Task: inverse folding
């Protein structure tokens, strides 16, 4: 007795009872017959089927050669002949097991498995509550069972290699690899195919009728494409007949898709890139990012895309990725845009041509540990981001930089070499700086007087160390439209700089003061210098810092510019302690740590005639002269300054912290010692200045003040600069000390610069720990693609923060007033529910009374869909966009969008 396909499962105990009676009545005559013959066949166990009624967790193997043999063989010759004439039906053993029972049929051609049944054949694995294995037809049938609540459990799960699906019932033929499956859900790439009745027509192909295709992973999908008929080729493609959208079980018959094609290959493949569409007031209707993707090979690909607008604007884009495993990987982009905002014949008609190039390249760390090559190129014309940026981040970006770098470490030596090609640009003033190339050769610190085999403590002279850094640069800064017209000899700046710091042995004085002597030598090699000659009534159109009556001649050739200095520095730590008089005070002590440092340095007068760095030149008809630098504008700076310098520098750092009883500690047991915590009152308060012993006036440098502290979890930073000298009516400093001329707080010095900044963040406690875990999961396991800042965190109900900044710039002349700027930035997020999130970001200039870039965003998580509303209420970027779209990249064009572009504002 067996289960008919599609019938209800019989009770296991009833089946067992009936089969035992049947086996008893049928086997008894066979035993009698076997006793009457001299040769009897093997018993039923030769078929590989155990007739024991109940065998928990028993695994048996069906041997292919025995499956085709008869149970009653007249002689060995006929058996061998039949085995040779008839090929095995099954190519490999079939393993099966079950938890409750394994029952074989009387003819040995069927096996019935109950409860967590499992059948394995080659790479095919089938599990279900009930499995019926028919060895004659080579078919297997499987189904689940309903539990006490009516829920179907232990449903058939079919695995074939990497393919896997679950269904309610399944019938499959091992030989033809065909089958009938009901209520199946298969995962195809990023999507899922649901079908009530599916026919498996080959190893990798299915056909179905009235199915569903969706990227929603819910058992009952929130949306799907209703497929009237379809063919699914696993790991290849899905081809459908007429289909229509169903959203939240509501069918949308219009528009209907006459046919559909969904690529489903696990590897990339070539194909057409569907453009997005929309409208702008200035550029008209558009199709964006349409084109073709070419999967060239496993090493690189290529995408060619374009934009077209109804009013004449257009763009083309090229993108490629490349990768060689264990060697390198990277990507390259080129974009060209032609924007047309007016009609031909209009006085303002001026087509704008813009382009951008990005390139990134990185080398695998395993490729070569001593040699690396990398590239990060981001170059564009100055107006590209302003005219073509889609995101606010790109629009607000005014600085760009690029670097192509090669580095080599010479193994088992202290030497390193690096070569860089650098670029930086400012889109605000269209300035561009190129360094082609910049090369650095360095030697790590070596100790030439140390013994190779050391014994005992280091001698003082063995601490003598020296290192070297050499740098070559060839650079130019100009407007981007002029840079190609510049002369290499006249406009490019180049040179080589050598730096040799020498580390002299340090020593301690009085066991607490550490002294460190030093000597520093710098040398610059330039390949040109200038000569200056006064010409009466000359008109040489010189730069702003030179009179037009001075002729400037360029003299080429190697020009050495060197300088050196001596120094001696000392530092120590001083501690102070305050203990409260009241023993019941929560405060147990306040510690003050001071770190004074002192240094003295000497540099000769490099303005002396013997160095040849400065030339005294007549500048007007009165005979007045000026000293002009013959290396003015050098890439590493001009000549060393005129006048000797013997400076004493002083700085003082302060740290103040308090030790107090921790009243918030609720884990303290009775009898245990009280627990304490440290509270920082002042993280750092520093003062620094210097005094030139050799200068004839203005010896004292400005006093720099820096402070940092934390109040109630708020970080506060402040600073200022006090100038000790007065100024005249023209704003020039004069040798008069402020404390002799002013009164009150003004005696401290002339405040030339001050700043104050702090920020606060608030967030609800709910979901905070879960949010931190999610953040770690995202960063460590990369469970989400792309830039993580674009993902909303729906676990924290709300958070809010603001930043305040105050800056003061003192007056240059006594008649002027100082300038004050104050800005405040506000940001916040609010999760109305687990699915709704509102966020905003703005900045406000308090002095100007104006808002800067401001955004409001509303996001709704719709499980497999997402909704976003972005609003910029004012400013040049004033715009809004409303989008509902499927999350899957495969269905990225399945969306509803309404927007007003910021391009409509000009």
Result:
């Amino acid at each position: 007795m067996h289960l008919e396909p599609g019938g209800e499962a019989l009770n296991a105990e009833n089946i067992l009872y009936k089969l035992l009676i049947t086996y008893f009545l049928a086997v008894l005559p066979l035993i009698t017959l076997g006793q009457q013959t001299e040769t009897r066949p093997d018993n039923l166990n030769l078929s590989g089927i155990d007739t024991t009624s109940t065998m928990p967790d028993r695994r048996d193997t069906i041997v292919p050669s025995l499956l085709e043999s008869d149970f009653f063989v007249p002689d060995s010759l006929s058996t061998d002949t039949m085995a040779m004439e008839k090929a095995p039906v099954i190519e490999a053993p079939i393993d099966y097991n079950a938890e409750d029972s394994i029952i074989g049929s009387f003819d040995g051609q069927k096996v019935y498995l109950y409860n967590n049944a499992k059948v394995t054949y080659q790479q095919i694995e089938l599990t279900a509550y009930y499995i019926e294995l028919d060895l004659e037809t080579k078919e297997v049938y499987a189904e689940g069972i309903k539990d006490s609540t009516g829920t179907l459990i232990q449903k058939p799960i079919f695995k074939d290699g990497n393919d896997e699906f679950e269904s309610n019932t399944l019938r499959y033929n091992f030989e033809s690899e065909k089958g009938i499956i009901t209520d199946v859900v298969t995962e195809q790439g990023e999507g899922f195919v649901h079908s009530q009745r599916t026919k498996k027509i080959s190893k990798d192909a299915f056909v179905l009728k009235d199915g569903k295709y969706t990227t929603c992973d819910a058992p009952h999908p929130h949306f799907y494409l209703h497929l009237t008929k379809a063919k699914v080729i696993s790991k290849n493609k899905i081809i459908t007949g007429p289909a229509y959208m169903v959203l939240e079980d509501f069918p949308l018959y219009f528009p209907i898709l006459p046919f559909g094609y969904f690529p489903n290959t696990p590897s990339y493949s070539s194909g057409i890139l569907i453009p997005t569409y929309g409208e702008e007031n200035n550029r008209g209707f558009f199709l964006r990012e349409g084109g073709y993707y070419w999967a060239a090979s496993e090493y690189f690909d290529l995408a060619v895309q374009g934009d077209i607008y109804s009013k004449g604007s257009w763009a083309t884009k090229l993108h490629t990725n490349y990768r060689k495993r264990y060697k390198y990987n990277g990507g390259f982009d080129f974009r060209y845009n032609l924007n047309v905002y007016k009609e031909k014949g209009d006085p303002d008609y001026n087509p704008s041509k813009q382009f951008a190039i990005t390139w990134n390249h990185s080398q695998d760390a395993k490729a070569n540990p001593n040699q690396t090559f990398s590239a990060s190129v981001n170059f564009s014309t100055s107006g590209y981001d302003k005219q073509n940026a889609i995101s606010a981040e790109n629009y607000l970006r005014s600085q760009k930089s690029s670097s192509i770098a090669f580095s080599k470490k010479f193994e088992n030596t202290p030497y390193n070499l690096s070569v860089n090609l650098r670029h930086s640009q400012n889109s605000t003033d269209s300035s561009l700086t190129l360094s082609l190339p910049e090369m650095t050769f360095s030697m790590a610190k070596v100790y030439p007087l140390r013994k190779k085999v050391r014994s005992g403590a280091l001698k003082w002279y063995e601490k003598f160390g020296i290192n070297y850094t050499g740098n070559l640069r060839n650079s130019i800064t100009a407007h981007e439209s002029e840079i190609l017209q510049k002369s290499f000899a006249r406009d490019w700046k180049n040179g080589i700089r050598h730096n040799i710091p020498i580390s002299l042995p340090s020593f301690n004085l009085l066991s607490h003061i550490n002294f460190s002597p030093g000597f520093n030598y710098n040398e610059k090699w330039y390949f040109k210098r200038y000569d200056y000659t006064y010409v009466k009534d000359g008109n040489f159109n010189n730069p702003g810092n030179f009179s037009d009556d001075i002729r400037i001649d360029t003299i080429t050739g190697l020009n050495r510019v060197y300088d050196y200095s001596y120094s001696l520095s000392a530092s120590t730590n001083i501690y102070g302690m305050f203990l409260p008089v009241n023993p019941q005070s929560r405060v147990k002590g306040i510690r003050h740590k001071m770190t004074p440092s002192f240094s003295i340095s000497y540099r000769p007068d490099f303005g002396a005639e013997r160095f040849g760095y400065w030339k005294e030149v007549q500048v007007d008809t009165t005979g007045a002269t000026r000293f002009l630098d013959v290396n003015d504008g050098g890439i590493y700076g001009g000549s060393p300054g005129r006048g000797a310098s013997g400076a004493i520098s002083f700085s003082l750092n302060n740290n103040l912290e308090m030790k107090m009883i921790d009243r918030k500690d609720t884990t303290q047991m009775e009898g245990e010692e009280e627990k304490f915590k440290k509270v920082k009152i002042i993280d750092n308060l520093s003062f620094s200045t210097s005094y030139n012993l050799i200068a004839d006036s203005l010896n004292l440098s400005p006093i720099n003040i820096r402070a940092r502290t934390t109040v109630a979890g708020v970080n506060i930073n402040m600073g200022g600069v006090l100038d000790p000298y007065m100024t005249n009516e023209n704003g020039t400093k004069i040798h008069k000390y402020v404390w002799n001329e002013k009164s009150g707080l003004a005696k401290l010095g002339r405040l030339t610069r001050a700043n104050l900044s702090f920020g606060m963040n608030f967030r609800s406690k709910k979901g905070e720990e879960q949010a931190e875990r999610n953040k770690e999961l995202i960063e460590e396991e990369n469970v989400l693609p792309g830039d993580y800042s674009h993902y909303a965190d729906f676990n924290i109900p709300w958070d809010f923060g603001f930043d305040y900044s105050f800056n003061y710039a003192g007056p240059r002349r006594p008649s002027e007033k100082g300038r004050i700027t104050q800005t405040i930035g506000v940001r916040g997020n609010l999760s109305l529910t687990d699915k709704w999130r509102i966020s905003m970001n703005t900045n406000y200039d308090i002095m100007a009374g104006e808002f800067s870039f401001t955004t409001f965003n509303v996001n709704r998580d719709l499980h497999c869909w997402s909704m976003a509303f972005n609003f910029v209420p004012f400013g040049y970027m004033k715009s809004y966009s409303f989008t509902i779209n499927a999350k899957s990249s495969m269905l990225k064009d399945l969306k509803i969008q309404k927007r007003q572009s910021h391009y409509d504002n000009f």
Summary: Residues 794 and 834 are 6 Å apart (CA to CA). The longest helix spans residues 12-36. Confidence is low (pLDDT under 50) at residues 1-88, 778-791.
